[in-house]
Amino acid sequence: MIIVNLVETRRYKVGKADTKSLIFIVDDDEDDRNFISTALQSFIDISNIRLFENGKELIEELSKGTNIPNLIVLDLNMPHMDGFEALTQIRKTWAAKDLPVIILSTSSDANDRIKCEKLGANRYITKPTQIKQYESIAGDLILLINSVKAEVSKLPY
Fold this sequence. Notes:
It is built from 5 helices and 6 strands. The protein is α/β, with parallel strands linked by helices.
């Protein structure tokens, strides 16, 4: 798992994501959902971004099996089902290479980071304090989607 400190994040030259890329954003804070989805719109069509308020909504959508995203951006502290439980449920079905999960949380607690790593998170990012920093996060997310797609395309099947 890679831990990202936004103070040290560099700007990347990132192209558009594949138009078929689907991203799920799961956060109980409407502002945070809007910040990350707005930043992602520079790289991906808004119709390919789905918003959820908690882990329970996410797991219900995933259990339908009809819309499996290329990436999940998951908050930790949410009502009904927190990010830890949602991540646990996700990893019962999908491996980290098949369905990347990025934790985007206000928590900078080392124990939370370690727990997320053990549960199978691909990355852990502490939420930024400035709206502009969401653009850097969005670029990193698109790079992750593109790198996972490249690896999957190399698999012999």
